[in-house]
Amino acid sequence: MSRIVTRDLTKAYGDLAVIEPLSLDVPAGQFISVIGPSGCGKTTLMRVLAGLEPPSGGDVTVDGQAPATARSRKRVAMVPQQPGLLPWRTVRANARLLLDVNRASTPPDAADPTALLQEVGLGDFMDAYPHELSGGMQQRVALVRALALHAPLLVMDEPFAALDEITRAGMRGLLNHLVEGRGVTVFFITHSIAEAVALSDRVLVSSPRPARVVADITVDLPRPRAADVEDEPRFVELCAQVRHALHGGMS
Ligand SMILES: Nc1ncnc2c1ncn2[C@@H]1O[C@H](COP(=O)(O)OP(=O)(O)OP(=O)(O)O)[C@@H](O)[C@H]1O
Ligand SMILES: [Mg+2]
Fold it and tell me: pLDDT for 129-166, tens place per residue?
């Protein structure tokens, strides 16, 4: 579990302001989603939190450390929008990728990806190559690759965006199942209101660029969450609240 704290964090590329001063406290173990218009700065924020980009101003820490330090200690795992599997590695070897790189930093409790691959329904595909998998299966390998690291912070950039609606709904259930009780902090970016509400403890709604938090919504749906949570009146209400904030209203 990782606590993320930012104070007056800003990011600009030259003259282009991408993130307005952002002060955010994400408690350890929280599942937080960010939703906002295309180009508003979501990926940029995620890259700063993951230690892949320095902020332009202000402070940011992950468990009191600079994000780049946390990342080099394998305390941050990332699931990108495209699975990014290596075509010459089998499913099993792709799932091990982050464990194999920079072995000295691999935490002793890093999970054996074999059990995780079974858990996500890929038990029969351990020795298959990425081109033999569907898009949803490839994304599940990318998810296992990140989870196997046992990093206390998991950042995910629209990981299910390229999937069809049915597969995507299945992935929501799977992700809830995988992270509930694991005590991991998740920073999740999405364009889907239903996905944000179904998965999160908290949803941040961003303005168009430069990113500014226009709503910070607590999702008080009980856990564990089953797929039929999406039929509940409270779920529908929360989705309406997020939609309203996205479209410029107050919430
Ligand atoms: N490396 C970079 N150099 C210069 N400008 C950048 C760079 N990365 C992002 N930007 C700019 O920052 C702004 C925000 O980009 P970002 O990728 O964070 O948006 P986003 O909210 O993730 O959008 P989307 O929902 O389309 O993925 C864009 O205007 C983009 O052009
Ligand atoms: Mg993006």
Answer: 999 999 999 999 999 999 888 899 999 999 998 888 88
Q: How far apart, in whole angstroms, are the C-alpha atoms of residue 74 and residue 98?
A: 9
CA 11 – CA 55 distance, rounded (Å): 5
* Cβ neighbours of 190 (radius 10 Å): 23
Q: Which atom of ligand 1 is nearest to the CA of 37?
A: 25
Structure tokens at 59: 């402070």
d(CA 205, CA 201): 13
DSSP 112: P
Domains detected in the chain: 1-75+155-251 (3.40.50.300), 76-150 (no CATH)
Q: How far is CA 240 from the centre of its chain?
A: 22
Site to substitute for ligand 1 among 11, 13, 22, most atoms within 8 A of C-beta: 13
Q: Whose CA is nearest to atom 7 of ligand 1?
A: 13
Alpha carbon 203 to its chain centroid, in Å, reads 12
Q: pLDDT by residue (tens digit) across 68-79?
A: 999 999 899 999
Burial status of residue 44 (CB atoms within 10 A of its CB: 0-12, 13-18, 19 or more): buried
Residues 147, 116 contacting (CB under 8 angstroms)? yes
